[in-house]
């Protein structure tokens, strides 16, 4: 028997947050967890996909991420934030730092959206050319993909 509640708790998510990530009503998730409503195999798979950490998604699609960044004019992709620290949860976003040449800036604009669609998580992409001294921590924390 599937214990969605235990899986959700291991992932460190509230019912409300998991329902939001899975795109289902919180009342439906509650009913699935309590057994008041049976969940189909497809629904269980959907809920489980929503419990995957961004670091796992990035690991599984790393080559595609690097190719997409390069195709859009970016180089030297690095990750920072919770994924770089190894503290990401399924509710975390993915923070990337890249080098973008001025002539590729307009091409690069859609990169965050495309990466979010590819990975199924919110992705923030920063250009290292726009960082100031106050952002030193981003540079110090960033690790290559």
From TrEMBL:
Keyword list, A-Z: ATP-binding, Magnesium, Metal-binding, Nucleotide-binding, Nucleotidyltransferase, Toxin-antitoxin system, Transferase
HTH cro/C1-type domain location: 4-57
InterPro entries cross-referenced by the UniProt entry: Cro/C1-type_HTH, Lambda_DNA-bd_dom_sf, NT_sf, Polymerase_NTP_transf_dom, Type-VII_TA_antitoxin
Keyword Metal-binding belongs to the record: yes
Cofactor: Mg(2+)
Pfam families: HTH_3, NTP_transf_2
Coiled coil spans: none
Signal peptide: none
Annotated PANTHER family: BSL3053 PROTEIN, SSL8005 PROTEIN
Entry's family note: Belongs to the MntA antitoxin family.
Name recorded for this polypeptide: HTH cro/C1-type domain-containing protein
Organismal lineage: Bacteria, Bacillati, Actinomycetota, Actinomycetes, Micrococcales
